[in-house]
Amino acid sequence: MVIDGERGGMDSDHDRSSAGGGKDAWPQALNRPAEARDTPDVIPPNTEVTTDHAPSTPSADPSVTGRGIAGLSTPYQVVAALALSLIGLLACTQVAMVFLHVAPSNTLTKEHGKTIDRWIYPEFEQNWKLFAPNPLQQNVAVHVRAEVVAADGRRTTRWMNLTHEDAKGIRGNFFPSHVHQNELRRGWDFYINSHDSENRPNGLRGDLSERYVRRIAMLRLSERDYGGTIERIQLRSATSSIAPPPWSTEKISTRPVYRVLPWWTVSPDDLPEHAAEKSRDAARAEANE
After folding, report:
1. What would the pLDDT profile of 201-259 be if each residue is shown by its tens digit?
2. How far apart are CA 40 and CA 42, in angstroms?
3. What angle do CA 273, 262, 163 make, to 5 degrees?
4. Which residues fall within 8 angstroms of residue 23, CB to CB, at 6 or more apart?
5. Strand 257-260 vs strand 229-241: parallel, antiparallel, or unpaired?
């Protein structure tokens, strides 16, 4: 009985010390982690308890179904789509009108030039051009023919289209050579720019351009066997305008216009390396005889 009384007294003392914040409660508080020590023992009602210190994010509103145009009602979506379509159409029209305004003269600008000017001037005036100078709207082909001396006499070959031969080496070739693309074209431009309309040189580069074109022609002719010796050659150009598209009312003549050069006498310096060497050997043999 005494033991029960002592035990009851000890229990009552422990309860009093725990309830009154006595020293028996401190070991339990000190053994708790720091986070638990900062948390009050008594949690007020209707208080959300979190396990970490990260700020809680507000829950999404279930009434919101989307963002942007998708979040609008159907009538507003229709109005927004029409407005965006109108803005896109105006932007495309503006870009097209400015492009036609700065582009070189062509079928569209000749047909609708007044409409383009009414759109551009005065607010969107542009004083620059897309191409300077205007791109070439013609096809230029260079032809050559030769005067051959053979055992049966002297004869003149037919015209050979050198430009067509170069074009055959370009079509279907993913990596065409620089020779096929530019040698003949640049050589002919070199000659035209250094001669007047009467084929007279207008400067010091005239003779150089003539020899350059002559060597190009002989290089191409040496690839063929004409059964004799080429003594003279003649070149010409055939220039024809590019035909307008079928829907255009513009009338352009596509008949070629020829520019014929005089006959040039071939010298050993105009021949390719192997042909020139052969000609020099023949000349030495004839001199020794």
Report:
1. 988 889 999 999 999 999 999 888 888 899 999 999 999 998 888 888 888 888 999 99
2. 5
3. 60
4. 17
5. antiparallel
